[in-house]
Every structure is written in C-alpha cells, then in structure tokens.
C-alpha cells in the first residue's frame, strides 16, 4: 500500500509532467469509449482498474511518443479527472489539510493547521468545476443547478461538502469541503491547550452526573470537536440518539443511534428537519439526546427534553459569550410554533441549561475554551446567576493571543448536585462558599 502522501506527490508530479491539452483530449476519448452506466455499477476500485486499462490502450493506440513515466502519469491524471475529483484529489489526500475552499475555478484556498493559505491547484474552467461538483452531489442522489443552487453532500470518506452556485454566488461556483481527521480526544485537547485538565475533569463529572451542557462558539471555533470529546464521558450502556444536519459526531459508545436531517427534494417535498428528528427521538426511549447544533424551533423541543427526563443531553449553539448563548437560545426557542409567552420561554431556557462552555477561535487559528459557566438554581426572585468555573484571561498587551486559564469555583448548590448524582466531585476546582457572591447576574 502506498501512503496517501506518496499518492498525493505522484498526482502533483503528474500535473507537472503531462500537459492539460493532452489530458483533455484523452478524457474525451475515454468518455467516448466507455459505458458510463455500466461503469457506475462497479465498485470504485474496479472502476479505476477498468478505466486505467482502457486508457492505457488508448494512449498506446493514439498517443504521441511518450516515455513510460509520462505515459503512466497521463493515464493516472486522466483517470483521476474522469473518476475522482481531479485537481482536488491531492488536497483530499493531504492529511495536513482540514478544509478545501474553492471560490470559482481558479481560486482555491486550503486550511492547514488552522491557517488558511492559497493552493496552487486550479480548475481549467467553470465547466470542469461544475462537472466535479456534479459528480460529488449525484453520488448522494442530490442535484444542484439553477433551480436548487445550494446543496450539502458528503464524500464517500465522510468529508462534508457544501455547494453554492451562481447567481447566488457572484464569482462562479463555490465548493467548500471540510475534512474530518480523527476527532480529538479530551486528552489531545488538553495537550493543545484548548482547555485545562481540571476543566476536562469538571466536564466529565457534569456529563456523568447528567447535567445539561451547551457548547457555545463562533463558526469553526471547535464546538463539534469539543462536543464529541465531551460525549465520551457518557457511560456505555445508555441509549444515545444523535441528531445532526450532516453527521459529524463519532461516538464511541455501543448504543448510539445516528439521525441526519434531510433537505427538500427538487420538487420541494420530503424535507425532514432537525425539529422533526428531535420530536421523533423522544419516542425512541433515549437516555440522552445530542443535537449537533440548535438553529431554530427545535431548540424548544430540545429544552423541554432537557427539563423532563432526558437530563444530561448535549448540544451546541452559535454565540459569542455565555450570556449571548442564553439569549440566543431564548430567541431560537421562540421560533417554535408553540404560542408561549416569552417569560415561559425564558424560564424553560434558564432551567434547562446547567453548564455553558464558551469556545473561541483566535486569529492565529488557536481554539480555546474561553469560559465555563455554571448556572445556580433561581433565587426567591426567580433570578438565576451564572457562576464562573474557569476563564481564559487574555494578555493582549503584547499583541498576541497568549494568556492563561484561571480556575474559578463550583457553586455550592451545584457541587451538592454533582456529589449527589455522581458520588464525587471533580478535582482541581474548589467549591465556592456560597452560591451568590462570585456570580454575575444574568441581564434580564
Ligand atoms: N481545539 C482545537 N484545536 C485545534 N483545531 C481544532 C480544535 N477544535 C477543532 N479544531 C479544528 O477546527 C475545525 C473546526 O472544528 P469544528 O467543526 O469542531 O468547529 P465548529 O465550531 O463545530 O464549526 P461549525 O461552526 O462549522 O459547526 C476542524 O478542522 C477541527 O479539526
Ligand atoms: Mg459544528
């Protein structure tokens, strides 16, 4: 077996060795020669072998005089472009790349180690890019064209793909591919400085004690990654239902049911929303429900589940601070079609959420847990307070994103709850003397 690196180097070398016109000419010939219908019934590896045989024959018959190396390279390139994703293949094979962003045919960016850089690869023209896009989405029985110009899909290896076409995108078809390297474990996140060992132990205890945890952060801040790592604390044997728009979570437990929403088909029918799935999951006797990200009316269903019988559920929300997360949950919950007064919605949010973990992606690509807050039960006036369990204090004076994680404390009432449900308290974070003094009051 050759390594992905070696294959990637070959393809790159091929791109330099054989010229584009020749590749295009032989791609045409190959497409004339083969029966695409028959081909589509074969396994990928068989397809590749078949195409390579036909191509070798065609080059031998019609090709210019080429060295054996040039010939092999021409065959590989034509097959890659016919079968695979052409210029994207080496980028997909490169393990250091986590995201591929195609902004029209001649501009491709990649993200490597959290940094975005321009890639040398380019498509010949719009049409070639569209063909590649077509190949990706037809593989999952979706269609993308002027009438449905936005589509999500997944590559056979699980990479998540989003496509948006003109006229919605102004400078040509835009293709974004997110790769999923082996997800980080909690230990790996600690090693990278994303969070501290005491905070990891705290989250582990919270999950085991069935507190409801919400991970909050901006786009690409590492919410899904952290959710995945946190979910490892769910004891084996519990029945877990995961609900996502595009399945990204990979839980290690034995008893996991993965659900994925579905957009409407081209006739505008058949849509299954996250909300439909959350409602359905309640009839599936789950011990815990994990919603990849709440974005709309399903928030209300999720909160009620967290409040009634499915404690210990987990989700993420797009927000920039714990306070913002609470407000965002309130807004999202009010998008449900239930005619609830706002005070009832607020009450639902505030009694459901026990812990918020706030993530941030710094300009240098570092993902960090900026703050962990816990909510203490409402006082006599019905106010709930947030209580800082840990915070990252930024030291901006030197223009970098350095700083240090500062440990706060666990509110006394919540410590009692952890102790009661779990039998022990996590080490490394002290218990506060009372519930009130350290906390900030939530803005009404
Ligand atoms: N702690 C981390 N350290 C370094 N890289 C990370 C970390 N967490 C996540 N990443 C990387 O950042 C990218 C985005 O991560 P992730 O999908 O978890 O973010 P997200 O907040 O869920 O994004 P989205 O807003 O798209 O849902 C991934 O490539 C992931 O591997
Ligand atoms: Mg995510």
Automatic annotation (TrEMBL):
Record-given protein name: CpaF family protein
One Gene Ontology term of the molecular function aspect: ATP hydrolysis activity
Pfam families the UniProt entry points to: T2SSE
Family matches, as InterPro entries: P-loop_NTPase, T2SS/T4SS_dom, T4SS_GSP_E_ATPase
Record organism: Aeromicrobium camelliae
Gene3D superfamilies: 3.30.450.380, P-loop containing nucleotide triphosphate hydrolases
Residues in Bacterial type II secretion system protein E domain copies: 85-362
The organism's place on the tree of life at top rank: Bacteria
Family per similarity comment: Belongs to the GSP E family.
């Amino acid at each position: 077996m050759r390594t992905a690196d070696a294959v990637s180097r070959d393809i790159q070398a091929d791109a330099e060795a054989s010229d584009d016109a020749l590749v295009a000419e032989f791609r045409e010939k190959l497409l004339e020669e083969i029966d695409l219908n028959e081909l589509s019934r074969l396994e990928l590896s068989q397809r590749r072998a078949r195409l390579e045989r036909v191509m070798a024959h065609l080059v031998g018959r019609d090709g210019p005089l080429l060295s054996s190396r040039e010939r092999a390279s021409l065959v590989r390139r034509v097959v890659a472009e016919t079968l695979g994703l052409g210029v994207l293949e080496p980028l997909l094979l490169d393990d250091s790349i986590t995201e591929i962003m195609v902004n029209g045919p001649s501009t491709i960016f990649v993200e490597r180690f959290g940094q975005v850089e321009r890639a040398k690869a380019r498509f010949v023209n719009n049409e070639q890019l569209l063909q590649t896009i077509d190949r990706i989405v037809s593989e999952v029985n979706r269609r993308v064209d002027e009438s449905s110009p936005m589509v999500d899909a997944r590559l056979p290896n699980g990479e998540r793909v989003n496509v948006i076409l003109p006229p919605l995108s102004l400078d040509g078809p835009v293709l974004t591919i997110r790769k999923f390297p082996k997800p980080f474990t909690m230990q790996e996140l600690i090693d990278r400085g994303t969070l501290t060992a005491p905070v990891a132990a705290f989250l582990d205890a919270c999950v085991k004690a069935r507190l409801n945890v919400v991970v909050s952060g901006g786009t690409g801040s590492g919410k899904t990654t952290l959710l995945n790592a946190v979910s490892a604390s769910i004891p084996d044997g519990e029945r877990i239902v995961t609900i996502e728009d595009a399945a990204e979570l990979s839980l290690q437990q034995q008893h996991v049911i993965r659900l994925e929403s579905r957009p409407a088909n081209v006739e505008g029918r058949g849509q299954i929303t996250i909300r439909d799935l959350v409602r359905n999951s309640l009839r599936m006797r789950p011990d815990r429900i994990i919603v990849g990200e709440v974005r709309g009316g399903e928030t209300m269903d999720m909160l009620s589940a967290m409040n009634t019988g499915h404690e210990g559920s987990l989700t993420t929300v797009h927000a920039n601070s714990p306070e913002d997360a609470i407000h965002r949950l309130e807004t999202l919950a009010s998008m449900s079609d239930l005619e609830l007064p706002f005070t009832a919605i607020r009450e639902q949010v505030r009694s459901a959420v026990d812990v918020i973990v706030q993530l941030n992606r710094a300009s240098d690509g570092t993902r960090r847990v900026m703050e962990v807050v816990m909510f203490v039960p409402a006082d006599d006036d019905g106010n709930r307070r947030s209580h800082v369990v840990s915070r990252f204090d930024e030291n901006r004076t030197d223009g970098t994103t350095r700083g240090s994680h500062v440990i706060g404390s666990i509110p006394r009432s919540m410590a009692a709850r952890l102790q009661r449900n779990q039998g022990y308290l996590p080490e490394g974070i002290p218990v506060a003397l009372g519930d009130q003094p350290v906390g900030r009051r939530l803005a009404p």
